[in-house]
Each structure stands twice: as structure tokens, then as C-alpha cells.
Amino acid sequence: MHRLGVKARNNDASRGLSADARSVPGAKRNGRCRVTGAAQASVGFAAATLYSRPACTREAAMKHLMPSEAQEFLHKNPDALFVDCRSEMEYLFVGHPLGALNVAWNDGPDWEVNPHFVGRVAKLAGTNHTKRPIVLICRSGLRSVDAGIALEKAEFADVYNVLHGFEGDLDDLRHRGTENGWRFEGLPWEQC
Angle, to 10 degrees, between the axis of helix 117-125 and the axis of helix 143-153? Predict the structure, then answer.
């Protein structure tokens, strides 16, 4: 399990990110953050130093798991809610981990943040939703960090992000699924 200590500061001069930074969970086009701790080893130091997040004022409590760690965690914690926060089309046609429920963080055609995301997750998690473990996965670990932060702001106390997501990071040829991710690791999944 990895913890990312995130401290951000706005930097209007920083409009773009390197290819390394684009593969880091939660990367944005503005602002810069520093990743500390064991996560540097899993995302790479160069990417970790460019990890970007809108201005935040506290250390992130979200825990970060490699795909195989997430699978083990879910097996040991059957009460955990596994949420795939990709779009409905990605979930249905690209595939999704077995047991994951789809609640899109954002969806086409406009790709606006889903204003009902937190409410839908709370409803799925039930009456004790703020204490139930919530495991989030997306394509490559970007959207799931943003979704996790929204859940933490809504008082969810036990939020996990799956590093590298379902499809994994881009390789040198800009292909996914060749280096890491849930599917790359051969973990159980299905598609329509």
C-alpha cells in the first residue's frame, strides 16, 4: 500500500506536463504538487515531482494500491465497495474488473464532472458509507484520484486508489496495457 503526501501550490506558468507527469494519478494541466513516500518508486521520481493537483491545503489520506494489492485487499475485505469511475462506454466496451460497479466521475459528450458522483457512491455504500472502504479504479489512475478527493471532502474516511488503473500507463508507442494496470497483471475482468 502506498500513501501519497500531496502539497500543492498554484503555478500559472505551468500549463503543460511532460509525458511522465501525464501518467501520474491526478495529473492536471495547472498547478504543481510534490509526491512523497513510497509512491515515488512506483510512479517514478521525475513524474512524482511534477504530480499536479489543484491547490490543496492538507495531506491526502487516500491510500494507493498496485492492482494486485487492490485485488488482495478486496478479497480480504468483502465489505469494500469497488467503484470503476470511468465512463459508461469504457466500463462496458473496454472491460472492467469483476465485481466493480460503474459510477462515472465524468462522462461524454461534454466530459463534465458528474455532480451526482458522491451521492451515487454514498447510496451504493449504504448507511455506514463514510466508514466503508471504497476502492476506486479508472483507466490509468488519473480520474480515480480526483474522485477519491471528492469522496474525502464528503467525509469518506477509507478511500483507496488503484495505481495504473485498468488499462495502465502509455508505453513509448502510446499504447496502454503493455506495461502495467489491472488487465496487464492478468487480474479478473469482463466486458460486454
Answer: 70
Amino acid at 122: A
Instruction: Quickly count: other Cβ atoms within 10 Å of residue 145's Cβ.
Output: 28
Is the entire prediction scored with pTM above 0.90?
Answer: no
Q: What is the 3-state secondary structure (H, E, C) of the chain?
A: CEECEEEEECCCCCCCCCHHHHCCCCCCCCCEEEEECCHHHHHCHHHHHHCCCCCCCCCCCCEEECHHHHHHHHHHCCCCEEEECCCHHHHHHHCEECCCEECCCEECCCCEECCCHHHHHHHHHCCCCCCCCEEEECCCCCHHHHHHHHHHHCCCCCEEEECCCCCCCCCCCCCCCCCCCCCCCCCCEECC
Domain boundaries, the chain: 2-50, 63-190
What confidence tens digit (pLDDT) does each residue in 86-115 have?
Answer: 999 999 999 999 999 999 999 888 999 999
CATH class of residue range 63-190? alpha beta
